[in-house]
């Protein structure tokens, strides 16, 4: 029988768990990872970041081939959608990524256990296998990285066929005629964009009076305008109060968020995307005495220790943005602290990206947050219409906006809506991490012609001296 004693048992193999396991193994800890899913990689690799980006890119290619190449003098005829082939592309991408994690586990000698991990006591994890049998692992440390699950909406029961979560929306067998998305957040806009490009008529119903509530308001307003031009329609300030299944369709009942008369909306498919909640079901947290906050998240200190010695937690199951790279950073720090090193995460410099077209990316604070905190700031903005490379690429929509401290010029936040914004934001994340000023970035040489010159110009604009506008 295999040795069942470990220095660390990680429960969950998402970006938080698998990265923590690899880092711990690198540092010499004897490490196991328990995952109940058949494949490794968690939500992100199996049903989240990776499959959604595979479909976003594929649907962009379709859209571009259909409507976007004429302006470059490229004539294309007979463009057709082959949805099963597009889905096969997605499946292949997922498969190669999850197999990659399996390879990395082998390479780093992380022992993998397939089953549900249950904490029997501090230092004891029971693995309940799919066939119902169980084995027990003993360990010095337990790291909970069980992630999150879809937030349900009362009265709109998900069946993953006609009323779907993101998981079902990544796997539809045909393009719906009418897709209604409940929630104008990241999932709603990304997956709404996919199906809109493939031919669905998409309506986004959002409770608040704006989409992307966490983003800088100017950026989210601009995003709504661009997505609206692409064909998405928005019902803001509206709540869904119920769903009735008909033979072929679903009838949703809607009400103004502030109260008022009821209306109905017909859909072929409904996507519920109103957020995610931490997943701690069946983990044995109560018997272990692990404390949760009022939103069901595991409470930790800044080194990811829970209130129970030897039990740690990271990723979507604790507080903070539900992002894969945030979970990864936490996994690395937790493993390093367990191994006796020190670690630190700067939550002010974690970028967030919405992979719509164009992309929307942000790091640091929004104007609204700075106003609320009473911090005096300066704004520098530069539109892609004035960027030579953007014109050459025919991607002139959007702008770069940077926010710098009015007195010290230290960068406090940056927001980009435009082509490749998700890649470009990294320069500004690095700048924030290093405590740079807008002047530092403005004085850094940016290759010409690149889209990143818009970042330099936005930083120049902080002091009213952009060159190209
Ligand atoms: P998870 O990835 O959720 O992994 C947790 C794992 O634990 C799961 O595999 C689960 O099966 C397992 N588990 C749970 N309980 C047990 C148990 N008791 N025993 C054994 N195993 C257990 N983030 C981004 O940064 N960029 C994106 O582009 C992005 N796109 C997304 C798209 C979609 C559609 C969704 C749904 C999410 C997306 N996210 C994205 C969010 C991202 O997926 C999460 O932030 C990330 O996966 C969190 O990682 P984690 O390790 O905390 O948990
Ligand atoms: P979200 O929090 O981004 O958006 C949910 C939206 O639904 C909000 O705008 C909210 O106001 C609205 N809402 C809430 N209740 C509602 C109701 N009853 N009726 C109508 N609207 C309602 O959550 P989403 O899109 O489900 O994504 C979940 C998580 O996954 C996010 O936290 C995000 O960080 C992560 N994710 C990240 C991605 C990325 O980084 N590109 C992509 C997809 C998901």
From TrEMBL:
Q: Indicate the segments forming the Pyridine nucleotide-disulphide oxidoreductase dimerisation domain, all copies.
A: 350-458
* Single GO molecular function: dihydrolipoyl dehydrogenase (NADH) activity
Pfam families named among the record's database cross-references: Pyr_redox_2, Pyr_redox_dim
Which EC number applies? 1.8.1.4
Taking every annotated instance into account, which residue ranges of this chain make up the domain FAD/NAD(P)-binding? Answer: 6-331
Q: Looking at the keywords, is Disulfide bond present? A: yes
Record's catalysed reaction(s): N(6)-[(R)-dihydrolipoyl]-L-lysyl-[protein] + NAD(+) = N(6)-[(R)-lipoyl]-L-lysyl-[protein] + NADH + H(+)
> What keywords is this UniProt entry annotated with?
Disulfide bond, FAD, Flavoprotein, NAD, Oxidoreductase, Redox-active center
Judging by the UniProt lineage, the source's domain of life is Bacteria
The first-level EC class reads oxidoreductase
The cofactors named for this UniProt entry are: FAD
Cofactor binding: number and manner: Binds 1 FAD per subunit.
Would you identify the family this protein belongs to, as annotated? Answer: Belongs to the class-I pyridine nucleotide-disulfide oxidoreductase family.
**Additional observations:** The active site is a redox-active disulfide bond.
Protein's UniProt name: Dihydrolipoyl dehydrogenase
Organism of origin is Rhodocista pekingensis
């Amino acid at each position: 029988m295999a040795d069942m004693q470990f220095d660390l048992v990680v429960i969950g193999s998402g970006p938080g768990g698998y990265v923590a396991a690899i880092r711990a193994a690198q540092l010499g800890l004897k490490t196991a990872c328990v995952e109940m899913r058949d494949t490794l990689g968690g939500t992100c690799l199996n049903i989240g970041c990776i499959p959604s980006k595979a479909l976003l890119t594929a649907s962009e290619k379709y859209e571009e081939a259909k409507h976007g190449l004429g302006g470059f003098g490229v004539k294309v005829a007979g463009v057709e959608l082959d949805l099963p082939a597009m889905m096969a592309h997605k499946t292949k991408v997922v498969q190669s990524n999850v197999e990659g994690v399996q390879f990395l586990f082998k390479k780093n000698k992380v022992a993998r256990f397939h089953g549900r991990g249950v904490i029997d006591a501090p230092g004891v994890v029971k693995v309940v296998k799919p066939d119902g049998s169980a084995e027990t692992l003993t360990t010095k440390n337990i790291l909970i990285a069980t992630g999150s699950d879809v937030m349900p909406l009362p009265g709109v029961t998900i069946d993953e066929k006609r009323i779907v979560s993101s998981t079902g929306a990544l796997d539809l067998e045909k393009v719906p005629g009418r897709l209604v998305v409940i929630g104008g957040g990241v999932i709603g806009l990304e997956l709404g964009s996919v199906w809109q490009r493939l031919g669905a008529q998409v309506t986004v119903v959002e409770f608040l009076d704006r989409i992307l509530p966490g983003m800088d308001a100017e950026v989210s307003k601009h995003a709504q305008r661009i997505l609206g031009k692409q064909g998405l329609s928005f019902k803001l300030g509206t709540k869904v109060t119920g769903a009735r299944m008909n033979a072929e369709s679903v009838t949703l009942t809607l009400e103004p968020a502030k109260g008022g008369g009821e209306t109905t909306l017909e859909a072929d498919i409904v996507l519920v995307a109103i957020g995610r909640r931490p997943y701690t079901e069946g983990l044995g947290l109560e018997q272990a005495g692990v404390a949760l906050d009022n939103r069901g998240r595991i409470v930790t200190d800044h080194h990811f220790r829970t209130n129970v010695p030897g039990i740690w937690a990271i990723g979507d199951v604790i507080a903070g943005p539900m992002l894969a790279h945030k979970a990864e950073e936490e996994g690395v720090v937790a493993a390093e602290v367990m191994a006796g090193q020190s670690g630190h995460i700067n939550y002010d410099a974690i970028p967030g990206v919405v992979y719509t077209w164009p992309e929307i990316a942000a790091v640091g604070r929004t104007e609204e947050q700075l106003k609320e905190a009473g911090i005096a700031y300066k704004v520098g903005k530069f539109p892609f219409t004035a960027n030579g490379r953007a014109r050459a690429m025919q991607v002139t929509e959007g702008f770069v906006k940077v926010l710098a401290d009015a007195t010290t010029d230290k960068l406090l936040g940056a927001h980009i809506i435009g082509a490749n914004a998700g890649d470009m934001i990294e320069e500004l994340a690095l700048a924030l991490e290093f405590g740079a000023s807008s002047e530092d970035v403005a004085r850094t040489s940016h290759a010409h012609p690149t889209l990143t010159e818009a970042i330099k110009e936005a930083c120049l604009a902080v002091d009213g001296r952009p060159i190209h506008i």
